[in-house]
Every structure is written in C-alpha cells, then in structure tokens.
Amino acid sequence: MKNGTVPQPSTALAAYGWDSLLDSAFAAHAERGLVPGRVVRVDRGLCDVVVPAGADGSGGTTTVRADTEDVFTRDPMRVACTGDWAAVDLTPVTGPAVRALLPRRTTFVRSTSSKRSEGQVLAANVDFAVIAVSIAAELDLGRLERFVSLAWTSGAQPMVVLTKADLVPDSTYLLDDARSAAPGVDVRVVSAATGDGVAEMAEALAGATSVLLGQSGAGKSTLTNALLGREVQEVQAIRDSDGKGRHTTTTRDLLPLPGGGVVIDTPGLRGVGLWDADAGLTQAFSDIEDLAGRCRFQDCSHTAEPGCAVLAALEDGSLAHRRLDSYRKLLRENAWIASRTDARMRAEMRREWKQRSAAGREMYERKRGGGHRKVY
Fold first, then answer.
1. N or C, where is the chain less crowded by C-beta within 10 Å?
2. Confidence of residue 270 (pLDDT cuts 50, 70, 90)
3. Of 82, 101, 120, which residue sits at a domain end?
4. pLDDT (tens digit, 9 = 90+) per residue, 313-332?
5. Terminus-to-terminus CA distance in the chain, angstroms?
6. Any bridge partners for residue 254, and if so which?
7. Residues 157 and 248 sit within 8 Å (Cβ to Cβ)
8. Which of 67, 101, 135 is the endpoint of a domain?
C-alpha cells in the first residue's frame, strides 16, 4: 500500500482459511504492497474478493470488485475461480485489480463438453467436496461413483450427503446402497426442511472450506441456507413433471459459515466428465483394487482367468456386477479423455487398436482356412 503498511491477513482472513503456509506463499507479494484476498465469486473478467479492512487488518474484512486482466489466460485450468487466494492491488484509480493467484492446494476439475477436451476448475483450495444427492428421486449409484472419483482426484475429502430425507419414510436401505458405492467416504442423511442431521454436518465442516456439488434439484442451495442459518441462496421447487430441479444458483458463491469455515454453493451439474482421474478412481473403487491385488496373475483382466479374486467376489455376491461395470466404464472414459489431450497416448491407443484389429482379421482368415495370409 502507499504508506508501506500491509494488512495482517492472519487476523482478518483467518475465518476464510488463511494460515501460516499462505503467509509464506504471500510474502513476495506483500513486499510489492499487495494485499491478500479470497475470491468469493467470478463473473466475466471480474471477481468479488474478500480482503482485510483497515491498514492493520484489525477492521475485519470487506469485499471488493476486482479486475482479473493481469491473470487472464486462455488456459481454463489457470483462470481465477471461486476459492482462489489472490494478491490484490487496491491502489489503481480504476479500481482494485488481481495481480496474481497463489498456488492451489486442491482443485476440483471436470472435463468440459467442448470439442477441445478442456478441463474446468469448479472450485479451488477445498478441504471437503460435499456431494449432495436427493433421495426423493431414484438413487443413481453410477453417477455417485463418478462424483466420488472426481472428489478424490481433487485432493479434497469427499462427503456424501443424502438430502430430502423428510420425503422418504425409511432411508436405511438407500444409506446402505450409497455406502456400498462410496467405500471409505462419510455418508450422511439430512433434511434441510426438518433440520435433521444439519447441525452434525455443520460441525463436521466447521473451520474448513467445503464445496457443495450435485445435480439441479439435489437441494444444495436449501442445504446451504440451513448451514448458514439464514436465507442467502434463492431456492425453487423441483418440476412436478419429472422431479428434476431448476437451475436456481447460477454462480459459484463462497459464503462464511457461522461456526467457522466457508462453503461454496455451485450451480447444478448436468455433466461431470472425468479429468485425469486415475488416482481418484483407484480410491473410489478401492474395494475392487484390493480384490485385484489378490488375483493369481498380475495382469489379470478379470474376465476368465483362473485364480481371479474379482470373479470370485462376483460369484459369491460380495461384489455387485453393477459396480464392476461402473468401474470399467469410468476407466474407459478416463483413458479416452486422456487420449484426447495427450498426442503420444492417442498414438499408442491407435496402434493398439490397429494391432488388435489386424490380429482379429488374421484369426478370422485362419478359421476360414485362409492360412497365413498377410493382413494389411
């Protein structure tokens, strides 16, 4: 700042997640007279950033509208997003400006539907990725597994919240199904309408940064209001015709929780394509990975090999066919997305497909008595 005094973020921004590690990461920016801030909303080249108020940071925080031109990039993985920590210049006569973004600890990324096969960062520096699933509608376990895989990939801790429990007489079997699809994940049943489970959830998220994710109609905004203890996010009823939700939330908003910590409410997600999710898939399907480690052969494909622990689990019912099918589907999708963004991998996959095709044609010719005809 002009007088050389830099606000103390450890005091002013502690409620938003600032800590000693961020102090160290921000040191060089502080020497330039910039102030730290957390991005709470992004909108068309501008963003709302919460920054310390007062020269010494003792005045709490204030929210400023800041230009992001200095950090503009055509790489969608590096643009400013909700949850980012930023170095902000408050001195320009034209208004505050974000000069730099601090390195992200975690990033929740999905692949976009564009033909360019790009990744889209939905939230940054998140501790808990809370997956909201309405149990008033049919429980889609495959979609839940997809969200959990992305959550593990992000580096955040997944949490599954089954919402609208007041609309279901008995949620026990739904809770069991969700837990089977998300091993090692905290799965909770809540009702924002009655308050059941909300206080316990708020306690679990206190002091952390959480992002609420899920389809439209999952009750994310209603749950956000329940966690905040006041009506902040607009909500709408689901459509009677098909039970699906309307897009009430249109931006990703970071909001402080009364018990400490912050929550990011997000618009409903129609598409949640995987993005570089190898590690997340391994974690999300840890039960299958554990079984695969017990197979007789290291390169077991779990189709017909002797001594296959995965096939044995299918046979005795301890592993559902649906879950193995879901795992294989997500593995194929992840490999395909990677191939579209990695020229070397794409070339390798094409060579492999060509070799398999050639081998298949050769086998067909042999069966027809064609001998060892050369296959082009």
1. C
2. confident
3. 101
4. 999 999 999 999 999 999 99
5. 71
6. 264
7. no
8. 101
**Alpha-carbon distance 345 to 326, whole Å?**
23
Asked whether residue 92 falls in the same domain as residue 113, the answer is no
Alpha-carbon gap, residue 224 to 191, rounded angstroms? 12
- Packing angle between helix 309-316 and helix 321-341, nearest 10 degrees? 140
Per the DSSP assignment, residues forming a β-bridge with 344 are: none
129 and 240 share a domain?
Answer: yes
Nearest by Cα to 42 from 82, 75, 95, 70:
82
Pairing of the two strands 85-89 and 61-67: unpaired
Do 49 and 190 fall within a single domain?
Answer: no
Phi, psi (deg, nearest 5) at residue 163: -95, 170
Q: Judge if 217 and 116 occupy the same domain.
A: yes
Cα-Cα-Cα-Cα torsion 192, 198, 201, 205, nearest 10 degrees, comes to 80
pLDDT tens digits, one per residue of 195-213: 999 999 999 999 999 999 9
Task: Report pTM.
Answer: 0.82
Count of domains forming the chain: 3
Q: Are residues 128 and 257 in the same domain?
A: yes
Inside any domain, residue 356: yes
Contact 257, 266 (CB under 8 A): no
Which of 98, 94, 104 lies closest to 86, judged by CA? 98
